[in-house]
UniProtKB/TrEMBL annotation:
Residues 1-23 form the signal peptide. It comes from Serratia symbiotica. This is Uncharacterized protein. Keywords: Plasmid, Signal.
Amino acid sequence: MNLRKLALTTIFIGAGFADIVHAGSLVGDASTASDDAVFNSPTQVANKLSAVSDLVAGNVAPHTTIATGSIGSVDGSVHRYAIRLASGVSRALETGEGGVYELTGNNNTSNKLTVSLNLDVGSDWERINGNGFMVTQNAIASTIYRINTYSKQDYVNADVYTIQSEAYVYNE
């Protein structure tokens, strides 16, 4: 019986190798295709911000510029940008206006300064990942932005108010 199993096993294995040996043949020249999958670095945004010097506490006119900044891409290409103030608390839901923030004094946390973020190009307020951003309406190489006292702010207490902005390339 063992001899019979061995003979059948040999026949089945031989039949399997027979198919491999008698496989079809390749005809003609090979046709090849290739391409490169390129992973580029994310676009880097240049973001500069400078506070106005010699600001004086007390009665301050609405829309007084307290800082100016600029954003653009390091590669010089045109993009849409999203920018927000990271140092303040967004007041957009309370005021109904995008780009309005409340800054807190560094020396006295009861001191508050309400400011607005304004871009020199057309922009819209948009909520992205839970944060409010001003987003440029069109692709541009760069733009200037200003941090101004809010229209309803008339008195500013003497203190240091940190202004920090975050800018990103915006992809829909």
